[in-house]
Amino acid sequence: MRLLIVEDEKRLALSLAKGLTAEGYAVDVVHDGVDGLHRASEGTYDLVILDIMLPGMNGYRVCSTLRAAGHDVPILMLTAKDGEYDEAEGLDTGADDYLTKPFSYVVLVARVKALLRRRGNGGPSPIHTLGDLKVDTAARRVFRGGDGGDGDEVTLTAKEFAVFEQLVLRAGEVVSKGDILEHVWDFAYEGDPNIVEVYISALRRKLGAPLITTVRGAGYRLETPR
């Protein structure tokens, strides 16, 4: 899943990004409201962590503008406890939850997971069936045989699952290496793009080589067994 952090305190923003990346999320970071609004409007995000006191455009305006444009991405608002801004006003603009600084990182992760679960419950089924594989994108688990948790679990690392999820969500389509890098790592990744091949190889070992086809010069396709 892909998260956007809009926070002008750069140390805090980068600390949150590092922690959430370790949790298995792809995280993008911007430091002002105008960039945050643009990124949230144009990108495909599963959740936005939005500070209220931002340069360019405050978080209230970013949130209300997104909602007015029809964007229903979950928004977790952050603010310092100084009396100038309050929870009611934040929620009135369309935020889904609210966290006051200073906050516990553990609490923030719990709020993020709760919002993502809540959104998943209102959307398409998180269970994807591929032959004898069951992929639960909400629990981030893969089972072979049986129904859901009744089968044998195939253990994947957070990054392996994130790469596999991109293929599962577009099963039968060609997914480029660039798309995988953008969604699983982030827009600022400057490492070796061949890292994707390493994870594809690991998935083939664990799930079966025929499941993932390389389309030369284009990307990878998850085959859909009949």
How would you describe what is shown here?
- With 226 residues, the protein is α/β, with parallel strands linked by helices.
- The chain has eight helices and twelve strands.
- The protein has helices at 10-22, 33-42, 59-68, 87-92, 105-121, 158-169, 177-184, 195-207, and strands spanning 2-6, 26-30, 47-51, 75-80, 97-101, 127-130, 133-136, 141-144, 152-154, 174-175, 212-215, 219-222.
- The protein has a five-stranded parallel sheet with strand order 2-1-3-4-5, with helices on both faces. Strands 6-7-8-9 form a four-stranded antiparallel sheet, covered by helices on one side. It has a three-stranded antiparallel sheet with strand order 10-12-11.
- The mean pLDDT is 83.
Number of strands: 12
Physical arrangement of strands within the biggest beta sheet? 2-1-3-4-5
Query: What is the N-to-C order of secondary-structure elements (H for helix, E for strand)?
Result: EHEHEHEHEHEEEEHEHHEE
The backbone outline, from C-alpha atoms, is: elongated
Percent in helix: 25-40%
Mean pLDDT: 83
Low-confidence stretches: none
